[in-house]
UniProtKB/TrEMBL annotation:
Biased composition (Basic and acidic residues): 63-87
Organism: Actinoallomurus vinaceus
PANTHER family, per database record: PHOSPHOLIPASE C-BETA-2-RELATED (PTHR39082), SCAVENGER RECEPTOR CLASS A MEMBER 3 (PTHR39082:SF1)
Protein name (database record): C4-type zinc ribbon domain-containing protein
Residues covered by region (Disordered): 63-94
CT398-like coiled coil hairpin domain location: 14-193
Domain of life: Bacteria
Every C4-type zinc ribbon domain range: 206-239
Pfam family, one: CT398_CC
Amino acid sequence: MKAAPEAQLRLLDLQELDTTLDRLAHRRRGLPELAEIAKVEERIGGVADALVAAQTEISDIDREQKKAEQDVDQVRARAERDQKRLDSGQVSSARDLENLQSEIASLNKRQSDLEEIVLEVMERREEAENRLRAVETDKEAADKELAELAERRDAAYQEIDGQAELTRTARSGVSGDVPDDLLKLYEKLREQHRGVAAAALLRGQCQGCHLQLNTVELNAIRAAAKDEVVRCEECRRILVRTPESGL
């Protein structure tokens, strides 16, 4: 392949810009905020589960409390009804009177027991509310931390994307100075060699694979025409000759 020496030198400028773009893309993917966000999101997921569990617990306790209070009301209403019968003097039989008094005593005992259950349920509800408030506090803190991390991430994205846009603009200008066939080869080699397709020959060493060329290889490059596109025998990257090549 043939290309003017000036066009070959532009490959080094193009490679530098592409390396910068690759570095920016790597930096964008590896922002520390991304790992921190993932951890916080995982924490929020756990908090969300705990929040549902706490809310469900309170809902269950509320149903339990409502049932216990209804039981108390029913027993109280029956005891009051029996007490009215007793106070009205409607019961004249001694045996019926004794049975009624016994039932009232039993109902009062049952009411007392049920009221103890209501109090115990209310205490459990208060404890559940405390747990719910603690979970809500954790969620609020996690949401706040996530928002702050997202803000830092977005600011970093904006900075990186701004640099990348400027670099792409510069790349567009440089690539226009490279012939199409050479540019096509360059792009192909970039895919094959982890983004590095062109390297300078510096004091007899390929800056792509950093291996020193032997005398035979250097003599072949010296003998090549200036517009000949040469390749490194080791890494097969485009080898660009410069005044510091040591030829």
